[in-house]
UniProtKB/TrEMBL annotation:
InterPro entries given in the database record: BMP_lipoprotein, Peripla_BP_I, PnrA-like
Pfam families according to UniProt: Bmp
Stated family: Belongs to the BMP lipoprotein family.
Protein name as it appears in the record: ABC transporter substrate-binding protein
Keywords of the record: Cell membrane, Lipoprotein, Membrane, Signal
GO cellular component: plasma membrane
């Protein structure tokens, strides 16, 4: 059981014992409730779009499910609300910590202010935030990824697959995080074939305008690029990316998915033959690893980065038309090796 494993570790370290006894909320008044809450484990709070986006949030949920299965403890996952504030996010995280969940993870950079605030109030609970490296607290793990590296490989695949010498990039929101996807993709395309033109577009300036949660916006953007002869379109747009994939399928061009292996997503099954590959980041693994570190009594903290070298970003091989294309596979493999060795420096903006 969860509490027993924590106390065993604590036998060698008084600090770990304190962690186990106060995991329900970080106050002296919560220590007495540890017995009733000691089996509560990982909880996640979703980003814009929520569960069912077939991408970023669903990857986090997969990590939660893996932890739940392995450790046999109670978990929780909470949806965002329309137009919510930082205070709403902080209240959500506080509620999870008070209930005894540990760790508590905010999925997405928008949780940074809330994680920073709540982590200070619950020093004995480990918090995680996906896609942000700014919180810098003793009990917070900043789970970040080198998305530009996977996007570079997506650019190689796009340049090798285009017949029109025009490809597209659709970003959900015009922010530094998504600039990493764009920069890597454009560099990968140009390094592979300088003649290929990249059309790049952002759906909104802010997340509140629906850039990550509006498939209709993604579909319209992709259709515009396809009209300009793009025959491979890469989307880094959360739920909005489903619209990009739909447009690609309708117009018989290639789509490149993001974050999760979108070829395998059930909700996208009817479009899967149009999904060439996906630029993946293993959010599931990062979420699971943080939960395991807490379970083992050695919580991860600070910046925890996943990249090509660690295997936590990369391209999916699920579509046989991608996996069985020797020329394409060789080009991607060569680029990957050069990035890992440092011969290729991938831009992040």
């Amino acid at each position: 059981m969860r509490r027993i494993s924590r106390i065993t570790v604590a036998g060698a370290a008084t600090a770990s014992l304190a962690l186990a006894l106060s995991a329900c909320g970080g106050t002296s008044t919560s220590a007495g409730s540890t017995d009733s809450k000691g089996d509560k484990g990982l909880a996640i709070a979703y980003d814009v779009g929520g569960k069912g986006d077939q991408s970023f949030n669903d990857a986090a949920f997969a990590g939660l499910e893996e932890a739940k299965k392995e450790f046999g403890y109670e978990t929780d996952d909470v949806e965002p609300t329309e137009g919510e504030t930082d205070a709403d996010k902080a209240q959500r995280l506080s509620s999870l910590a008070k209930q005894g969940y540990n760790p508590v993870i905010g999925v997405g950079y928008a949780y940074a202010p809330a994680v920073k605030e709540v982590a200070a109030k619950f020093p004995d609970t480990t918090f995680g935030i996906v896609d942000d490296s700014t919180v810098e607290a003793d009990n917070v793990a900043d789970l970040v990824f080198s998305e530009e590296e996977a996007s570079y490989l997506a650019g190689v695949a796009a340049a090798k697959s285009t017949k029109t010498n025009v490809v597209g990039f659709v970003g959900g929101v015009d922010i530094p995080l998504i600039h990493k996807f764009q920069a890597g993709f454009e560099q990968g395309v140009k390094d592979t074939d300088a003649k290929v033109k990249v059309l790049s577009q952002y759906l909104t300036q802010t997340a509140e305008e629906g850039g990550f949660s509006s498939p209709d916006k993604g579909k319209t953007a992709a259709e515009g690029q396809i009209e300009k002869k793009a025959d491979v379109v890469y989307a880094a747009a959360g739920l909005s990316g489903q619209g990009v994939i739909e447009a690609a399928a309708a117009n018989k061009v290639w789509a490149i998915g993001v974050d999760s292996d979108q070829y395998k997503q059930g909700a996208l099954a009817k479009y899967k033959d149009s999904i060439l590959t996906s630029a993946m980041k293993d959010v599931a693994k990062a979420v699971y690893n943080l939960a395991k570190s807490v379970e083992d009594g050695k919580p991860e903290t600070g910046i925890v980065r996943g990249d090509l070298k660690t295997g936590e970003v990369g391209l999916s091989n699920s579509n046989p038309k991608f996996a069985d294309n020797t020329e394409l596979q060789d080009a991607v493999k060569t680029a990957k090796e050069k990035i890992i060795s440092g011969e290729i420096k991938v831009k992040s903006s």
